[in-house]
Amino acid sequence: MAAFPWYGLDEAFTGPRWLMQVGASSDGTVEHGSTGHGDEPSLRAEVDAEAREKQRFAVVVTVASRPLRKSADGTGVLEATSVSSAAWLAGAGLLSATWPSRMERALRQDWLDQQTAIAWELADDLDGSAWSQLSLPVDGSPISFRYRESEYGWVLAGSEHNGCCDGSGEAAACGGSGVHIGAYGRGMSAYGLGFSVIKDITGYAGA
Predict the structure, then answer these.
(1) Lowest CB count within 10 Å: 44, 78, 128, 182, which one?
(2) Which domain of life is it from (predicted)?
(3) Which residue(s) pair with 132 in the sheet?
């Protein structure tokens, strides 16, 4: 139902693929979604810490490129999406998949709140020292991503149309599909990844 193309890892990845959550606005418009690759991360109590450490996965987040616009009910405005939007969703996704489950229950929410705030601040400062640049192929063309690592895994974010020939970065100006791409993972190196449009989303488990 999304009006934009979904992205996932390219054909070089031959492991399991699965569909994750979809984010929609109040009027039902799909704004973003995620596709998983590799081991489905689990924080269930029956999965021991050692098994979680061995999990290898990469999740690709596709965010529709949207301008500043009115909300569905006309009472307010919705912020424009950007590479920071993709970085934030990827950072929050990594936290949800890797937080230390052995932490005391009373401390978990405080920890998540603190780390979530840090993830937001980092996503809002993509030119900061916490990020480096990483060039990865998107539909076969090199695209520049912002990339950072933490003890929990890695996060990256970029725009499918940031290689625009006129430098504007606008999808309409360079014929791009108009999406921002985020990704996060653990146990799989980000350096060897490539992204491509998903031609048939039904090939993902749960679709």
Answers:
(1) 44
(2) Bacteria
(3) 147
- Residues 13 and 5: their CA atoms lie apart, in Å, by 19
Residue 147: other Cβ atoms inside 10 A? 20
Residue among 1, 85, 67, 34 at smallest CA distance from 195: 34
Q: What is the pTM of this model?
A: 0.84
And the tokens for 78?
């919705």
Q: What is the 3-state secondary structure (H, E, C) of the chain?
A: CCCCCCEEECCCCCCCEEEEEEEECCCCCEEEEEEEEECCCCCCCCCCHHHHHCCCEEEEEEEECCCCEECCCCCCEECCCCHHHHHHHHHHHHHHHHCCCCCCHHHHHHHHHHHHHHHHHHHCCCCCCCCEEEEEEECCEEEEEEEEEECCEEEEEEECCCCCCCCCCCHHHHCCCCEEEEEEEECCCHHHCCEEECCCHHHCECC
Nearest-angstrom CA–CA distance, 159 and 4: 13
- Give the N- to C-terminal CA distance of the chain in Å, as an integer: 12
CA 138, CA 65: separation in Å to the nearest integer? 16
Token pair recorded at residue 164: 């625009």
CA distance 40 to 55: 8
pLDDT digits (tens, 9 = 90+) for 62-118: 999 877 655 555 555 556 688 999 999 999 999 888 766 666 777 877 878 888 888
